[in-house]
Design a protein that fits this description.
This protein has about 200 residues and is α/β, with parallel strands linked by helices. The protein has a single domain, classed as Rossmann fold (3-Layer(aba) Sandwich), CATH 3.40.50. Helix content is about 30%, strand content about 15%. The strands form two sheets. It has a four-stranded parallel beta sheet, with helices on both faces. The protein is globular and about 50 Å long. The chain starts with a helix and ends with a helix.
Length: about 200
Amino acid sequence: HSWADALSSIRLPYVKYICPHAPRIPVTLNMKMVMPSWFDLMGLTPDAPEDEAGIKKAAENIKAIIEHEMKNGIPPNRIILGGFSQGGALSLYTALTCQHQLAGIVALSCWLPLHKAFPQAASNGVNKDIAILQCHGEMDPMIPVRFGALTAEKLKSVVSPSKVQFKTYPGVMHSSCPQEMLAVKEFIEKLLPRI
């Protein structure tokens, strides 16, 4: 819900925006409380155990949305995946393991799930030239900016390093800011010019 609002402020009139909701599942990190979550979270450090089955299942759900859009006439090279926090993590994983060449990835305040599986997990390198905009608040207490920087370095070993942009925002916590949203808008405009 909140990201649909955030996107409305930078929305391009000729671009279709799809904001799927994560299912409600028990999350280990939050004492097994049921909450919206794409996959289970056991910890938020680079070496924390990960819900591999849940991550892969969530990625398949997003790939089904991509397939649906392609059947409706949207070429994959006009599709950008993006998200914030866990949604950004899922966007990175999904795009890098996708069989179709996508336009780009917007990855806000996030990390690359199952990072040890890359670069091998990247589907035949079909997205090795994908453009990635990664943004992170420098004061993020949930996913420290250092984790974001490590993710950017890892991404440079998976895709063409010149295609990875990593922008940080001073004073920003685990949230977004107008400058970040402007960077997202410019990224989308560049990758999806009006046709």
